[in-house]
Predict the 3D structure of the following.
Amino acid sequence: MRLQKGFIALLVGIAIILVLAIGLSGYIYWQVKQLRYNDETPVPYSYGNKPTPSPTPPPQGVVCAQDAKQCIDGSYVSRQGPMCEFAACPTSEKQIPTPMDSTSIDLIFKYGVGGKNELNTFANTYTKDIVIGPSITVPFRLSEEEHARILTKITDLHIFDQKKPALQPFRVIPCSSYYLKVRTDSSEKELSWSNCGGEIIPDAWTAFTDFMISLIESKEEYKKLPPARGGYL
């Protein structure tokens, strides 16, 4: 009889332990499920307050090279912008007519020390400075094609749009002087410059001078002239 009561008490104890174990497992399962639900629940969007985007940080500063480009009018522009490109050159409306606008051109071009060398297409002559001794003047005629090339060069280089260079506080001896007079069908213009005051001559004027001297010295009339004697000090 006592053995039977002990066995019943054991079964009751086991049953109580199983109930408690099942209850504890259910409680733990419920807690874990709540945590997952909270993590997965989306945050409600408020239509009254739109989210403010984070500001985009400004680009880092760009340091461009400090070189400069000379424009056809004699001015200079520097590099700028994120790509460090040269700024646009100023434009000028003062241009000599192009070959399409003119059918003829005549000019006087003087160069050298004192501007003593002279090409004169008005008179069809050329004067060469011999230095020691009198200058020599000979007949000198340019072809229509050479006239057209000169006019094209004047137009392309914008010769009459260049800024005259400023004088420097020193003198250059000997120095070269230049004079240009151009007449087309519709206009006549004059220009003079020198390097006697240490001026920085615009590239366009230097390019035109080199072109004209090369053209003059290529002619047979020039090649027949005697060489200059002596030199300037």
Notes: The helical segments are 2-40, 144-157, 203-217, 220-223. The first strand starts at residue 68 and ends at 70.
